[in-house]
Automatic annotation (TrEMBL):
<dbReference type="InterPro" id="IPR036291">
    <property type="entry name" value="NAD(P)-bd_dom_sf"/>
</dbReference>
<dbReference type="InterPro" id="IPR055222">
    <property type="entry name" value="PRISE-like_Rossmann-fold"/>
</dbReference>
<protein>
    <recommendedName>
        <fullName>PRISE-like Rossmann-fold domain-containing protein</fullName>
    </recommendedName>
</protein>
<dbReference type="Pfam" id="PF22917">
    <property type="entry name" value="PRISE"/>
</dbReference>
<feature type="domain" description="PRISE-like Rossmann-fold">
    <location>
        <begin position="4"/>
        <end position="275"/>
    </location>
</feature>
Length: 424
């Protein structure tokens, strides 16, 4: 029977992995690491409070007596500056591995599974060649006549590969690349589904119960892929022992291709809202007016689209669209929407009626919605690489979204949809 160490155990990806390890009878012990205490009751789960920003020496004290065959690294600290993001997240994984080396726990290790994401393909910088393949060239530094910012996933991957080589390959690694994760973590609302659920709830309770799409028209029609936190956890457990998976990077997405044009009307129906027609009365493109009296936003990014770097090998050097800078346009800026008086009064009314968690509102990541709904490019990857090695997992994106909403209802973050529909 195996043991596992999970870092970032309270986060969206980490908590799902802990949950699946707990259910998996082939694991006898799970060491869950984070700064906050998740309050486990099962003796199979042992929490250790650790600050991964500390030095390797500091961590050896906490990690004393802890060893495992499998490490699932999901700790993550956000930062707006790409250099700082690399430094912080690079130091966390580097010091953690050094601490495992110092305690000798590294000698038990068989595979280290690191969670990264689609920023590997520079989706945060604009439109890139699609579908994304794990073998696609990465953008960092000088590529294709442009200077690209450092990418913290690549920093982490270099550190991990160097450490595995240092061990004379006694252990190997797997890197997973999920796209926008649909999941739930208590006390952590960095989650597209939570912000969306709150937006739909308050929209239902506002006069008229309309559900306008906050983002841009092109984004409404673009194609996207999502990752269920549960499916990602199952993938990580599969990849930790899958033959031929070692020292490889894998996309991890649900397996369907979705779009807001498909999901938005379903959201409206679930929350009892009306789909406005026209959805984009002022065009829904950069610099256009907002939806009704809502405030829009247009953000031009300083870089060119990542596709630019591939222009020559894709044969699109003469395509003028590659010259455009990536733009995020929201006909209703979610951050400004969440700060409006009428929206806050309506939220307070809904919160008090159903006894909802005020922290959910305060911690909702409206800025993430601004990006996810405001971009006008698709984000589609393929699962072919993992499937060729035997991965058969699949999740339906709409079903996963509903599953998260139901969890949010049970946790007192969203009201029961059926009651909301009857009450407003
Ligand atoms: N969420 C998404 O939609 C998404 C999509 C694609 C890729 N990803 C990637 O998935 C990876 C994991 O992200 P996530 O979304 O699961 O993160 P998350 O939900 O924000 O959780 C972060 C975890 O890291 C822990 N942590 C943060 N700082 C720490 C520190 N100094 N010491 C110890 N633990 C610390 C947090 O616990 P404490 O605060 O209790 O310490 C928490 O458990 C990241 O690389 C992220 O970019 C996420």
């Amino acid at each position: 029977m195996a043991s596992a160490i999970v870092t970032g155990a309270t986060g969206i990806t980490g908590s799902a992995i802990v949950h699946h390890l707990q259910k998996d009878s082939s694991y006898k012990k799970v060491y869950a690491l984070s700064r906050s205490d998740p309050g486990y009751k099962d003796p199979k789960l042992q929490h250790a409070a650790i600050d991964l920003q500390g030095s390797a020496d500091d961590m050896t004290k906490t990690l004393s007596g802890i060893s495992a065959e499998y490490v699932y690294f999901c700790a993550y600290m956000a930062h707006d500056d790409p250099q700082e993001l690399c430094r912080i997240n690079g130091t966390m994984i580097s010091n953690f591995i050094q601490a495992l080396e110092k305690t000798g726990a590294i000698n038990s290790l068989k595979r280290f599974v690191l969670t990264c994401g689609f920023k590997q393909y520079s989706v945060h910088l604009g439109n890139a060649k699609q579908p994304f393949l794990e073998s696609d060239p990465v953008l960092e530094g000088e590529v294709g006549g442009e200077t690209w910012p450092p990418n913290f996933y690549l920093t982490q991957q270099r550190i991990l590969a160097e450490a595995a080589a240092r061990s004379k390959n006694q252990w190997d690694w797997v890197v997973t690349l999920p796209q926008d994760v649909l999941g739930f973590a208590r006390g952590n609302f960095m989650n597209e589904a939570t912000a969306l659920g709150l937006y739909c709830t308050v929209s239902k309770a506002l006069p008229g119960s309309e559900l306008p799409f906050p983002g841009c028209k092109a984004g409404y029609f673009a194609f996207n892929t999502w990752t269920s936190a549960n499916l990602h956890a199952k993938f990580c457990l599969w990849a930790s022992t899958a033959k031929g998976a070692g020292n490889n990077i894998f996309n991890v997405i649900n397996g369907d291709t979705e779009s807001w044009q498909d999901l938005w009307p379903r959201l409206a129906k679930r929350f009892g809202c009306k789909i406005p027609n026209p959805m984009f009365p002022n065009g829904g493109t950069a610099d256009s007016k907002g939806y009704k009296d809502f405030e829009p936003s247009t953000t031009r990014m300083p870089n060119k689209h990542p596709l630019t770097a591939r222009a020559a090998d894709l044969g699109v050097s003469s395509d003028p669209s590659k010259e455009e800078s990536p733009t995020l346009f929201c006909q209703i800026n979610p951050e400004k929407w969440a700060a409006r008086d009428d929206v806050n009064k309506t939220w307070a009314q809904v919160r008090d009626k159903y006894g909802l968690d005020q922290k959910a509102w305060e911690k909702a990541t409206w800025d993430f919605l601004t990006f996810a709904l405001g971009r006008d490019w698709s984000c589609v990857g393929t699962m072919s690489k993992a499937r060729k090695l035997g991965w058969t997992g699949y999740a339906d994106t709409w079903d996963e979204l509903v599953d998260v909403f139901e969890t949010l209802e049970k946790e007192g973050i969203l009201p029961p949809a059926e009651r909301l529909k009857g009450d407003f």
